[in-house]
Specification:
The protein has 22 helices and 18 strands. It has about 700 residues and is α/β, with parallel strands linked by helices. Strands 1, 2, 3, 4, 5, 6, 7, 8, 9 and 10 form a 10-stranded antiparallel sheet that branches. Helix 5 packs antiparallel against helix 6 and helix 7 packs parallel to helix 13. The longest helix has 18 residues. The radius of gyration is 29 Å and the shape is globular. The N terminus is likely disordered. It binds CIS-heme D hydroxychlorin gamma-spirolactone 17R, 18S (HDE). The site of CIS-heme D hydroxychlorin gamma-spirolactone 17R, 18S (HDE) has 24 residues, from strand 2, strand 3, strand 4 and helix 12.
């Protein structure tokens, strides 16, 4: 057995070991006996030794004929495929979409014909700017790409968690992406927009101002994929059986409500757990708490479009929900993680042009450009036009076509005829009735390179977004802009940005300028159209206004130590689980601690590895000696001080107070600190947690 362990430990077996093994009557084969399959090459040749390459003599040169070695290294050398140029870092999950009611009146898309219809789905969430190995809590837009395997072909809604975009025309996309990514000479900063090139481009691109308000808001630092919205961004069309068109915008609403973190917390999460969002989705799905979103659609006709203040083809504009209510049409549930990240999440190929009969495009110039781009990128990344043969990309409905051959062809047409029309009655034929039909819009005009006048207002909706935020959210936008621009080394870029902010909100501009130390206010940036100040605030745009009033799906970190009162811990655990939340125990040692009654409390984290930034609320349940001891440890002090600074609700046993004193947090500082050992303590804590954060504390902690 000792020899077996050594063989599998990956250490090279010595000649002595090998003799022993072979002397034992082919023990190598026995190792792979029973239920364990024998290792083979990709060609199926059984392998006798996977620890040593073939050489001439014990210390001699390696021989070329070692086909197993050659194949193994060859394959390893080719393991990587190009990462996505944008949205490289992502995480996906399987699930299904369930249709509420028939939408036949608006669309003939098969997925919307029958109430209760379940359609398999795959979703990939992503950040935009960082590379594959970047951290999850960058300030960034999140991709929200949904593949629906409908009975009439794959439908991809390749959206974001922000309903508008930086640019109006796809021709600017390479510039925008170059500017946000690391600067080409120095290759930094990675996964960050806080640098000169990005703000230089933005300050020279006024159409980006609305998007900038969103990206500087807490939308860009979501607590979890599970707590963010998704948007199709562009205006699309639904087409019914009579080919009548209705414009449509897609919104995904998270069942657990919206939630973000605060910036100081995001920075610390990136160090404590760079995979914070991945782990969150993994844990939720593995524990059976399946995340869910409702699909809602804003439906409107040409008349509405003609009378709307902005152009519905302009992807830098929204239609406020208060003006046009999104109608719920179904729900998306994610209930299964991929078996293999590479095969599924890395190889999944989303394409905006994947739309089934009954869904069609609008003339949004960004969407039109995307429809061209996504096919190209799949060929580059996946290396073959046969990328639809990969299971994650293959339709789950019947499909028949005459495409053949090419790299890695898995399925070729069967039989003699690989063309149509043919005389043999073989193969598929097109169907004018059932097939995809485009909306027969009348298009005419000169061939020009012109942006429509109706796209010219770049500030009014940026202002509307800012005015729709609660005071804490407005403060966060100020702080984000100040932080980002403070990283810009070229003063003129900072000033140019302030000139734009003056067109959005004077108070915002003046505060940012002051915090940046700009001595002389610039003049407002020139505008093509005067910004409007008559747009009603839209409460739907605020995260805080749309809080879940529930703590479900959230996590409490409980700090324990030697002598912790176990009855209180158990009572707390019951209450947390009743709320649909989870509890994780943090202790001085990961092995756990001995409780007050001599029982053993298992821990999930040691204090250094379980800082409070990983939790939505904390509880500190220390005995007096435990608190005295932990008060000496900076990680324990940070546990409390950070939770306080990040506006979290903090429950505590009175015996823990020594730690609070040393952490500089007064236990009676505000109503967010809740003594647990009072009769109503646990209930009061859970009720507070439903508010998620104590925003009223923010001015005091000066984040
Ligand atoms: Fe993308 N985008 N994009 N994009 N995009 C890609 O496709 C592109 C845009 C979005 O999880 C690429 O497979 C152009 C808007 C998501 O796999 C690429 C333009 C929105 C994902 C590409 C845009 C998106 C991508 C890179 C300007 C929100 C990740 C790899 C016209 C509505 C999908 C790939 C996934 C990925 C091109 C703008 C969302 C290069 C040319 C606007 C969620 O084809």
């Amino acid at each position: 057995m000792a020899k077996t362990a050594k063989q599998f430990s990956g250490k090279p077996a010595t000649v002595h070991d090998q003799k022993l093994l072979r002397g034992n009557g082919g023990e190598l084969h026995q190792i792979a006996g029973g239920d364990i399959p024998v290792l083979t090459t990709a060609q199926g040749i059984l392998v006798s030794d996977d620890q040593n390459s073939l050489r001439i003599g014990e210390r001699g040169p390696t021989v070329l004929e070692d086909f197993h070695f050659r194949e193994k290294i060859f394959h390893f050398d080719h393991e990587r495929i190009p990462e996505r140029v944008v949205h490289a870092r992502g995480y996906g999950a399987h699930g299904y979409f369930e249709t509420y009611d028939s939408l036949a009146k608006y669309t003939r898309a098969d997925i919307f014909q029958r109430a209760g219809e379940k359609t398999p789905a795959f979703v990939r969430f992503s950040t935009v700017a960082g590379s594959k190995g970047s951290f999850d809590l960058a300030r960034d837009v999140r991709g929200f790409a949904v593949k629906l395997y409908t009975k009439e072909g794959n439908w991809d809604i390749v959206g974001n968690n922000i309903p508008v975009f930086f640019i109006q025309d796809a021709i600017k996309f390479p510039d925008m992406v170059h500017a946000v990514k690391e600067e080409p000479d120095r290759a930094f900063p990675q996964a960050q927009s806080a640098h000169d090139n990005f703000w230089d481009f933005i300050s020279l691109t006024p159409e980006s101002m609305h998007m900038i308000m969103w990206v500087m808001s807490d939308r860009a630092i979501p607590r979890s994929f599970r707590f963010m919205e998704g948007f199709g961004v562009h205006t699309f069309r639904f087409l019914n059986a009579k080919d009548e068109s209705t414009f449509v915008k897609f919104h995904w609403k998270p069942k657990l409500g919206l939630q973000s973190v605060v910036w100081n917390e995001a920075v610390k999460i990136n160090g404590a757990d760079p995979d914070f969002h991945r782990r969150d989705l993994w844990q939720a799905i593995q524990s059976g708490n399946f995340p869910e979103w409702e699909l809602r659609v804003q439906l409107f006709d040409q008349d509405f479009a003609d009378n709307f203040a902005f152009d519905v083809l302009d992807p830098t504009k929204i239609i406020p929900e208060e003006m046009l209510e999104p109608i719920p049409v179904g729900r998306l549930v994610l209930d299964r993680m991929p078996d293999n990240f590479f095969a599924e999440t890395e190889q999944v190929a989303f394409m905006t042009q994947n739309v089934p009969p009954g869904v069609d495009f609008s003339n949004d110039p960004l969407l039109q450009g995307r429809n061209f781009s996504y096919l190209d990128t799949q060929l580059k990344r996946l290396g073959s036009p046969n990328f639809t043969h990969i299971p994650i990309n293959a339709p789950k409905c019947p499909f028949h076509h005459f495409q053949q051959d090419g790299h890695m062809a898995m399925r070729n047409p069967v039989g003699r005829t690989n063309y149509q029309p043919n005389s043999f009655g073989e193969g598929p034929r097109e169907s004018p009735q059932r097939g995809f039909r485009s909306f027969a819009d009348a298009e005419e005009g000169q061939k020009v390179r012109l942006r429509a006048e109706s796209f010219a207002d770049h500030y009014s909706q940026a202002r509307q977004f800012f005015n729709s935020q609660t005071p804490p959210e407005q403060r966060h936008i100020v702080m984000a802009l100040t932080f980002e621009l403070s990283k810009v080394e070229t003063p003129v870029i900072r000033e140019r940005m302030v000139a734009h902010l003056l067109n959005i909100d004077e108070g915002l501009a003046v505060t940012v300028a002051d915090k940046l130390g700009i001595q002389k206010m610039p003049k407002p940036a020139d505008t093509a159209v005067a910004p409007r100040d008559d747009l009603e605030p839209s409460p739907a745009l605020s995260i805080i206004e749309n809080g879940p009033d529930s703590f479900a799906g959230r996590k409490v970190g409980v700090l324990v130590g030697p002598g912790t009162e176990v009855a209180l811990l158990k009572k707390l655990q019951v209450a947390i689980e009743k709320e649909g939340a989870t509890m994780e125990v943090v202790a001085p040692k990961v092995g756990g601690v001995e409780a007050s009654d001599g029982s053993w409390i298992e821990a999930r984290h040691m204090i250094d590895g379980g800082p409070s930034v990983l939790f939505d609320a904390i509880a500190v349940l220390l005995s007096k000696p435990g608190a005295d001891r932990l008060a000496e440890e900076s990680a324990a002090r940070d546990f409390v001080a950070d939770a306080f600074a990040h506006l979290k609700f903090i429950a505590f046993a009175q015996s823990s107070s020594a730690l609070f004193v040393k952490a500089g947090v007064a236990v009676d500082a505000d109503e967010g600190l809740i003594p647990l050992d009072e009769p109503e303590g646990v209930d009061a804590f859970m009720q507070s947690c439903r508010k998620l954060r104590l925003w009223g504390r923010e001015p005091a902690v000066k984040l």
